[in-house]
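pls read this protein:
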Amino acid sequence: MALGRALGNAGLALGSTLVAAGLLWGAGEALLRAQYGGLPTSPAGMRIYDEGRGWALRPGRYAHFDVKAARRVDLTINELGLRNAPLALEPAPGVKRITLLGDSFIFGAPVDERSTISAKLQGLAGDAYEILNVGVPGYGTGQQYLLHEELRGRGYQLGRKLVIAFFTNDLQDNAGLSYSTLARNPMQPVFSVDAAGRLRHTPPPRPRASRGDGDGPEGLLERSLFAQFVRYQAEVLLVSYPRLFDAARALGVVPALPRTPGIVAGWYGPQWEGLWALSESVLEAVVRNVRATGEPPEIFIAFIPSPFQVSESFMRTVAAGAREDARYAAMLADPDRPQRVLQALAQRLDVPFIDLTPAMREASKTSMVYFPREGHFNELGCAIAAQAIFDRVIQTAR
């Protein structure tokens, strides 16, 4: 009799808990749907096919709910396909232009317009400078150069200083490979340098489907805005408190990585030297070609580190993977391989090198500089990057 009452009470408590959780879930989902439900989860229609670069950005205004960063993102793309204010052919009298050339980190995914690296750098530089955001998500060095030359060919003056931002995934982008599997990415051009040192590329065919690594159809949790919001908040907590992260992993409640990180797959597998040799030759050709133009700008190379090189919690995830995968172990043994070989190339080319890693690591001791799981710089990360570029590109020139 007593056992029956105990089981009944336990069942009632469990049922009440499930009902309360369901009501909380429903209320949370309804609230988020009311605020963001009319938004797509990606900037639909923003990317269009380009027969040379693979894709370009369609001019217009876009708004979407980024589920990985749990926030609304508003984007404005100008007439040139840039996340930049409308651009005149040349700067105003007395104003110096500086071009930031890069991928989604320079573009500013998923921060607002005022928080991008270029906007933060503009605030530091003042009205005497005009900072151009020439960043397109997913672009490697070769695609960035094609865009740069297209703008020059249309008569746009891009300034006396050019900052080429290099992220670890550019290793795969320049070779036309997917980040995780290193399979051929049909949306990406494949670059090469011929025997005469000329930069060549094989344009991609017109796509039949959107670009991606093929994660498969979304499940219920992926479609739920409330689940994504709760997950984001949990990941913020785990990233902020590494001991809590370790405890959660020990209990098996920290999810495994959905795919091999691009830095691990590209830089620490047996093929990394061949991939780097290709990117090295592409960077060298880009620098040589830019210097061969009339009144060439001063060129800088800025290295953008992966969160797996900076954040303690991300690095602990790499450590966990090292038990079963030699690539993870190789990264643990030499985490700064990408910036080391890139800096050696910059020195050989006599190009000033800006390594954002030290500043990011220092800040990450007390704050987050990347969005958890989403992986790009947050507002603080963008501000730190802008300060490092300002110190080297503008401040030292004054």
